[in-house]
């Protein structure tokens, strides 16, 4: 949709991939004016040949290279097309890409949205999310993971992925995860890196600001999509999610992922963090704005309670003049102000980052 004038070429097609690998020059002659090459990591040598064409034509945006994984792709592009590329990370749909404002107004509660998730095929093809996520997980493990690393026991890796789901919104403790999965600490570290590199999970880093307290330096774990997360947690429908013990963590995951998308969709790095000290004080999310910090608190409750703001009030006292107006994102429908704190609905664009 973004480039309707360009030819689209999928390198998943065996015949197309065979020609691209065995007669690369002849293959590229077909697309001298440019093209979209999908799953380009399947033919790494293609990138080297593109360098000469790009340098000769000097036409920005002549080729668009896409892939469902960054591994095996970034190193080749970095070496062959250094200084000639721009990277855009495309996660699943954002809420406002998928729903209009009027459609969101008619949605009562967020459980169905979180359960269904925002991966394009589920909505584009109107698929049962339970079936699609089951197939996605199987194909991801059997194809993409095996391309990355030699994992002999795939069932153990799948169990590890589910262990990650059960720790959503928590600090990463590799020793505990390794013990529960029956693997070594180094293997757990490697597998976390695989999940992060393939855009299954996201590690939210702690902010370095000290404020005269000992701060936590371990990242927190989130998934890029709540639909996949719900499937891994064996949640079978929105009604089960409504009473699930991890409902608050799943909602927090949703808000973090929407914030991240608001950066990525503008071609920007995800400039978000969390903050926690060893005394138990915590801010769910911090957004850097120059020398100032925008604090976010995330609550899944659909009815506002002033107690929701306690953490933000405490933060302001510690941060002194470094904090800009704090924001609370909650599970209700209305947006308003409470004691100079912006109370924002999960449906609103107001908590997203806009340049």
Order of helices and strands: EHHEHEHHHHHHHHHEEHHHEEEHEEE
Number of strands: 11
The biggest beta sheet is recorded as: 6 strands, mixed
How far apart lie the N and C ends?
A: 23 Å
In DSSP terms (H or I, runs of 4 or more residues), the helix count works out at 16
Give the helix proportion (percent range). Answer: 40-55%
Rounded to the nearest angstrom, the radius of gyration is 22 Å
Shape estimate: globular
Task: Provide the β-strand percentage band.
Answer: 5-15%
Overall pLDDT confidence? 89
Strand order of the largest sheet: 6-7-8-9-11-10
Query: What low-confidence regions span 5 or more consecutive residues with pLDDT below 50?
Result: none
- What structural category characterises the helix and strand content? alpha/beta
Domain count, please report it: 2
Brief summary of the model shown:
The chain has about 350 residues and is α/β, with parallel strands linked by helices. Helices cover about 40% and strands about 15% of the residues.
Describe the structure.
This protein is 42% helix and 15% strand. The protein contains 16 helices and eleven strands. The mean pLDDT is 89. The longest helix has 20 residues, at 129-148. It has helices at residues 14-22, 24-29, 45-57, 74-80, 95-98, 101-105, 111-116, 120-124, 129-148, 154-165, 174-181, 185-197, 226-232, 238-242, 247-264, 310-319; strands at 8-10, 35-38, 63-66, 201-204, 220-223, 272-276, 282-289, 292-299, 327-330, 336-338, 341-345. α11 packs across α12 (185-197). Strands 6-7-8-9-11-10 form a six-stranded mixed beta sheet. The chain has a three-stranded parallel beta sheet with strand order 1-2-3, with no helix packed on it. Strands 4-5 form a two-stranded antiparallel ribbon. The radius of gyration is 22 Å and the shape is globular. It has two domains: 8-80, no CATH class; 95-345, no CATH class. It is an alpha/beta fold and 355 residues long. β7 (282-289) and β8 form a beta hairpin.
């Amino acid at each position: 949709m973004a480039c309707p004038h360009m030819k689209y070429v999928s390198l998943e097609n065996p015949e197309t991939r065979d020609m691209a690998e065995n007669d690369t020059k002849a293959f590229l002659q077909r697309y001298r004016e440019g093209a979209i090459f999908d799953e380009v990591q399947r033919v790494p040598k293609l990138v080297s040949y593109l360098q000469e064409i790009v340098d000769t034509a000097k036409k920005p945006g002549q080729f668009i290279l896409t892939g469902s994984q960054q591994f095996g792709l970034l190193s080749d592009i970095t070496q062959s097309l250094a200084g000639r590329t721009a990277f855009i990370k495309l996660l699943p749909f954002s809420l406002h890409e998928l729903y209009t404002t009027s459609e969101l107004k008619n949605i009562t509660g967020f459980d169905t949205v979180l359960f269904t998730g925002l991966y394009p095929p589920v909505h584009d093809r109107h698929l049962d999310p339970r079936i699609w996520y089951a197939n996605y997980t199987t194909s991801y493990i059997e194809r993409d993971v095996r391309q990355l690393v030699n994992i002999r026991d795939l069932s153990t890796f799948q169990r590890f992925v589910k262990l990650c789901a059960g720790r959503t919104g928590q600090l990463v403790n590799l020793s505990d995860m390794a013990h529960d999965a029956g693997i070594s600490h180094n293997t757990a570290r490697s597998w976390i890196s695989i999940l992060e590199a393939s855009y299954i999970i996201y590690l939210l880093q702690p902010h370095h600001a000290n404020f005269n307290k000992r701060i936590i330096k371990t990242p927190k774990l989130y998934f890029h999509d709540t639909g996949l997360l719900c499937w891994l947690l064996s949640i079978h429908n929105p009604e089960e999610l409504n009473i699930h013990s991890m409902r608050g963590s799943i909602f927090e995951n949703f808000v973090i992922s929407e914030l991240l998308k608001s950066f990525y969709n503008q071609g920007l790095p995800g400039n978000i963090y969390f903050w926690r000290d060893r005394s138990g004080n915590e801010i769910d999310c911090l957004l850097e704005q120059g020398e100032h910090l925008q604090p976010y608190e995330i609550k899944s409750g659909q009815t506002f309670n002033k107690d929701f703001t306690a953490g933000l009030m405490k933060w302001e006292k510690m941060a002194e003049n470094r904090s800009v107006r704090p924001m609370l994102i909650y599970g209700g429908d209305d947006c308003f102000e409470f004691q100079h704190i912006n109370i924002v609905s999960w449906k609103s664009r107001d908590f997203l980052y806009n340049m």
